[in-house]
Design brief:
The protein is of the alpha/beta class and 454 residues long. Helices cover 35% and strands 16% of the residues. Keywords: Flavoprotein, FMN, Monooxygenase, Oxidoreductase.
Length: 454
């Protein structure tokens, strides 16, 4: 018996600091001006995407003690931007990354409950942790939390926030029609929570929001991160956008759900994905190669190389071979505030692999960095890209994708105009929104049962 055709979930990632944006393209605009956020969000909503995803950076990254050349000098506050976008969109979900290491549960729960009310039920929270003391220097706590304990705090943080969301029930406010006064149950909003990280008690100030709880996202890929997602998240923001790796990750995370009394439908796997479109597949391939060259200039190649070598390589020629000297092991001192340095835990082994690849293919340093720092996930004509996305989802390599364009803010326009109609024709993507909340769009439960209590 054949299974039903899966519906594809699509979302849009507004780029933060990165080397993926092609700044030299004349279409590239501000990552700070509100007009850019509005254009991006309205395009996503016009295409009937599930949500817009906004990353968060709590400190500007540095390299050799200077602000990283590819950083946007200014990171607008997540809640401020999402609240403003709630006023210029009607159905699009609004997902924000908020850190559980340097915030407090009452503050974050109040902000998300408020956003859920302002947006009529479209709020989502990407729960992340911070691992480095460098970021912590911006906060009173500094880098007090050992890396191994960060998920413990995150779990308790989320548990506490859920208790606050659930402290109000739907019928706790009763309207007296004659007097026009709203009366609350005497116990409404009351909470008390004590654990190793938090000791709070009082009354939550925001009545129950339209979704009950915001949609919960998680983005960790470690075993602890996957377990956290399986126990607590509604969706996981995955980096596994290659087909075989995606299927393996999808199966692994879904397999973990049973031990928490959850089913496969309770957690969506949504990898980040980039794309390049062309009139033909060959045209798209040519465009993709040029985009990669623009994304990794010679200066960028050196910056990315330093993140593995942990050495000052300003004088190294990016158009020459890799450095003869090996990376420096130990604490990373060249690049600070970059999560990507954690991907290269064994820098010596990474350097060996890169040397072998460069020798086999006669690659310069810049060409090597272009090769190893990522490729576009979907490259081709609109028909080819639509077919590839549908293949991933129907084969359980993903439940959908969070698209990251290389141009801001107009980078979604072509996808919305050409690929989305093809997916709609195939019956695998909505033609209109059927519900009003983000949980409706994602097919998730609403109310007290939304999200599993830890």
């Amino acid at each position: 018996m054949s299974r039903p055709v899966k519906q594809i979930h699509l979302a849009a990632h507004f780029p933060g600091v990165n080397n993926t944006t092609v700044w030299s393209d004349p279409r590239s605009g501000s990552h700070i001006d509100f007009a850019s956020f509005v254009h991006f969000a309205r395009t996503a909503e016009r295409a009937k995407f599930d949500f817009l995803f906004l990353a968060e950076g709590l400190r500007l990254r540095e390299q050799r003690g200077r602000i990283h050349d590819l950083d946007v000098v200014g990171r607008p506050d997540t809640f401020t931007v999402l609240a403003a976008l709630a006023a210029v969109t009607d159905r699009l979900g609004l997902a924000g990354t908020i850190n559980s290491t340097f915030n407090e549960p009452f503050e974050v729960a109040r902000q998300f409950a408020s956003l859920d009310h302002l947006s009529d039920g479209r709020a989502a929270w990407n729960v992340v942790t911070s691992w480095d003391a460098f970021t912590g220097e911006n906060f009173r706590r500094g880098g007090f939390l050992p890396e191994g304990e960060r998920y413990g705090r995150a779990e308790q943080f989320l548990r506490t926030a859920w208790e606050l969301f659930d402290s109000w029930q739907a019928d706790d406010i009763i309207a007296d029609k004659e007097s026009g006064v709203f009366l609350a149950d005497p116990a409404a909003g009351s909470f008390e929570h004590t654990d190793a990280h938090f000791d709070i008690r009082g009354r939550f100030t925001v009545p129950r929001s339209p979704q009950g709880r915001p949609v919960i996202f998680q983005a960790g890929d470690s075993d602890a991160g996957r377990e956290f997602a399986a126990s607590s998240a509604d969706a996981i923001f995955s980096r596994h956008s290659e087909f075989d790796a995606g299927r393996a990750f999808h199966a692994d995370v879904k397999r973990r759900l049973g031990r928490y009394g959850r089913g496969p439908e309770d957690l969506l796997v949504l990898p980040a994905a980039s794309f390049v479109l062309g009139d033909t597949d060959a045209d798209a391939q040519e465009r993709a190669a040029e985009v990669r060259r623009q994304q990794v200039s010679g200066a960028t190649a050196i910056l990315l190389l330093e993140q593995v070598w942990n050495r000052d390589l300003q004088k190294h020629d990016p158009e020459g071979p890799l450095p003869e000297v090996d990376p420096l092991p130990g604490e990373h001192t060249i690049a600070q505030g970059r999560a990507s340095v954690r991907m290269y835990e064994d820098r010596l082994a990474t350097a060996r692999r890169w040397r072998e690849l460069a020798e086999q293919r006669t690659l310069t340093t810049r060409e090597l960095i272009i090769e190893v720092t990522g490729r576009q996930t979907f490259v081709g004509s609109p028909v080819a890209v639509a077919e590839a996305i549908n293949r991933f989802v129907q084969a359980d390599a993903a439940d959908g994708f969070i698209l990251v364009p290389h141009i801001t803010p107009s980078g979604l326009d072509e996808f919305a105009d050409t690929v989305v109609p093809l997916l709609q024709e195939r019956g695998v993507f909505r033609a209109e929104y059927e519900g009003t909340t983000l949980r409706d769009h994602l097919g998730l439960r609403t109310g007290a049962g939304a999200g599993r209590q830890l």
